[in-house]
Structures are given as C-alpha cells and as structure tokens.
Amino acid sequence: MGKEIERKFLVKDLGYREAGEGVPYSQGYLCIQPERVVRVRRVGDRGFITVKGKTTGATRLEYEYEIPVGEADELLESLCEKPLIEKLRYKCEYMGFLWEVDEFLGENEGLVIAEIELESEDMEFPRPEWIGLEVTGDPRYYNSSLVNRPFKYW
C-alpha cells in the first residue's frame, strides 16, 4: 500500500532557487473527487499516472506508475480537465530533508508552494528561512483544486 505524508507551505522569498534550475512539469486530472483524484503528469521525457485517495490530516493513499511519455501527452491533451497545471519544480536539500518547491505558471502564476514528505505526521523537521505559512489542510492549495479555481482568480 502506498502512503504519502506531506506538509505544504507558502514560500516567502526566492532563497530556494539556490538549489539550481527548476524542472518543467505539466499535469492534468482525469478525475477530481473528494475521495480520489487521478492525475497524469509529464516531467521532462517521462510520463506518469497517479491515483491518490482522500487526504486525512497530512496523509493519503498514493499510487504512481510510469507510463510512455506519448500516452501521457495524449491524455493531457485530450482527456484531462483544463487548464493544465504548469509549473517549475525545484528540489532543495535542507539539513537532511528534501523540499520540493513548485513555482506555478500560466493560470496559477504567482503561487509558490513548498512541500516536504515525512515518515509520520508528527515528525519534527527544520524549516528553511524561505518557508512561510503552513497550508497543509487548506484545499485551495491542492493542485487538483487549482484546475477549477486557478490562483489568478483568488
């Protein structure tokens, strides 16, 4: 069984960019329900399909599988809800923890969110100076929510 324990934070400055170049991501959703989401993602020359369960606290079931990139492109273009989520992802190591920082583009430009995956919900971790307000439980910041209500309309 796949399980994801993830906490999300707003980012207050550009210090995370010291980690290097952001990688372009394009993702779309085949299903957006409170109980489940099905996501298709293209990262560089790789494609993925992911099934996620309902979030409880900071935990949810997650299953991710690599698919041929051509199939990912076709699903993104023809079957996924629009707008697609476009972003640059930065991976930042900080005191033994990996942070993933997403700079959203397109309809969600201006939004920057940092995520950290943990082994338990109550696990302690150091926060880089560029981390701001925690938004873990706020559904407005779920990528799947940004399809139906992009950040530019907030």
SSE blueprint:
Blueprint: E1 3-11, E2 23-32, E3 36-43, E4 46-53, E5 59-67, H1 69-78, E6 85-94, E7 97-104, E8 112-117, E9 131-134, H2 143-148
Antiparallel strand pairs: 1-5, 1-8, 1-9, 2-3, 2-6, 3-4, 4-5, 6-7, 7-8
Supply database-style keywords:
154 residues; mainly beta; 8-stranded antiparallel beta barrel; 2 helices; 47% strand; globular
Enumerate the strands of the largest sheet in spatial order, edge to edge or round the barrel.
1-5-4-3-2-6-7-8
Q: Would you count the extended β strands for me? A: 9
Structural class: mainly beta
**Shape verdict:** globular
Largest sheet: 8 strands, antiparallel, barrel
The level of helicity is 10-25%
Query: Would you list the SSEs in sequence order as H and E?
Result: EEEEEHEEEEH
Detailed description of the structure:
With 154 residues, the protein is mostly beta strands. It has two helices and nine strands, in the order E-E-E-E-E-H-E-E-E-E-H. A hairpin with a 3-residue loop joins strand 2 (23-32) and strand 3. It is globular. It starts with a strand and ends in a 6-residue tail after the last helix. The relative contact order is 0.26.
Give a short summary of the structure.
The protein has 154 residues and is mainly beta. Helix content is 10%, strand content 47%. It contains two helices and nine strands, in the order βββββαββββα.
